[in-house]
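hey
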């Protein structure tokens, strides 16, 4: 535990957002007095958990120790944030320590709201009930898929906020191809219980995904939100948009659970009515407390909750904090960029990039709505390397600098 209790910049959260912001700040000014509050010893590259669930990665391929990622000269407060007092510029941790700040960056991520689905918690990890949204169960996803003998395989997408909104269908496409390889596809009914009314929120990418589910003969049930799992009878209960409930028997089910912000954020003055850190969607500056910034999954930024979005949010936060420190008005703006590498099968990916306008913003001179082998290589090999070796170290990695790695497809 740090003996120092006063910092120029205090960051809550040592995930993708917190480490990237700290690294960029230190790269800009090595003398800044920065601390990160983060209770976890291990840091996971969560975008790869789909590949763990699909049998392409091992879980240990996705983890590094937090101590090796926090930038040199940044204090690691290994504790949980428990109370934020922006009126007095203080954060209290679970152990009772109080830390003061001049500037606060809030980015602890979001947490899974297990209890919104009755029976989910007690059935996870057995009897074919799994999720890639927790590291403990991603390997079980693959075990379930490779041992599947046919029947009904359900994949779900929840109502409300979710990390990486493409992930629920990525694992479904991998499973569909695995079932084909294993010779059980013809005796398998794949159901996508989707609480929303479309496959993807950006029209340009929604259209090809609708064709893919048709091609793969996947039974998409729109407006179906999973509310209960009955493990003893292997039944999934969905609430429909019409206010009815529908029961579907399953042989395996991959659940993408509902998600929410942590209680210490919901209960703080920083939260909006929905519980998110209430920030300006362009500057990432808090709407009331001007020395507070938010980014990443816990923020109110109206974009997809992905590591790729954080890559574009972090430089905006850094530039605007440094502007404030120089008594200048924050000018840097975030345009809502997000990226979702939509895996559509083994060796195939649609690299869905977009911004607040919900228009494609491709990094490559290729039609971004097409499935490509090259984008699978980007997803599987290049993005993890860039995450660990460029993004978390606060170094830029615009695609121009690594396009030469790609085949022409």
């Amino acid at each position: 535990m740090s003996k120092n209790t006063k910092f120029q910049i205090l960051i809550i959260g040592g995930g993708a957002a917190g480490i990237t912001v700290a690294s960029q700040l230190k790269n800009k000014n090595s003398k800044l007095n920065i601390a990160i509050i983060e209770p976890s010893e291990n840091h996971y590259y969560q975008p790869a958990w789909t590949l763990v669930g699909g049998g392409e990665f091992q879980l240990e391929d996705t983890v590094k120790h937090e101590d090796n990622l926090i930038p040199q000269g940044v204090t690691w407060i290994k504790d949980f944030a428990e109370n934020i007092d922006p009126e007095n510029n203080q954060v209290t941790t679970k152990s009772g320590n109080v830390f003061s700040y001049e500037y606060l960056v809030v980015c602890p991520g979001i947490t899974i709201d297990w209890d919104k689905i009755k029976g989910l918690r007690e059935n996870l990890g057995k009897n074919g009930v799994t999720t890639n949204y927790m590291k403990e169960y991603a390997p079980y996803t693959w075990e379930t898929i490779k041992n599947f003998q046919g029947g009904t395989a359900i994949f779900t997408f929840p109502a409300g906020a979710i990390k990486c909104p493409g992930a629920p269908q990525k694992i479904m496409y991998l499973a569909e191809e695995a079932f084909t390889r294993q010779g059980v596809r013809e005796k398998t009914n794949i159901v996508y219980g989707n609480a929303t009314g479309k496959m993807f929120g950006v029209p340009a990418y929604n259209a090809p995904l609708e064709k893919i589910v048709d091609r793969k003969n996947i039974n998409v049930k729109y407006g179906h939100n999973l509310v209960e799992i009955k493990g003893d009878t292997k039944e999934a209960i969905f609430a429909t948009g019409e206010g009815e409930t529908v029961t579907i028997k399953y042989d395996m089910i991959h659940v993408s659970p509902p998600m929410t912000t942590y209680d210490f954020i919901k209960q703080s003055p920083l939260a909006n009515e929905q519980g998110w850190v209430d920030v300006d969607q362009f500057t990432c500056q808090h709407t009331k407390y001007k020395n507070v910034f938010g980014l990443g999954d816990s923020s109110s930024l109206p974009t997809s909750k992905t590591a790729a979005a954080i890559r574009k949010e972090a430089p905006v936060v850094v530039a605007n904090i440094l502007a404030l420190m120089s008594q200048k008005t924050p000018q840097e703006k975030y345009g809502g960029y997000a990226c979702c590498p939509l895996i559509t099968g083994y060796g195939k990916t649609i690299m869905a990039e977009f911004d607040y306008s919900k228009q494609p913003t491709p990094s490559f001179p290729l039609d971004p709505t097409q499935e490509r082998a090259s984008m699978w290589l980007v997803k599987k090999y290049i993005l993890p390397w860039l995450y660990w070796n460029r993004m978390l170290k606060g170094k830029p990695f615009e695609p121009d600098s690594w396009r030469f790695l790609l085949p022409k497809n």
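Residues 258 and 380 are 26 Å apart (CA to CA). The longest helix spans residues 307-325.
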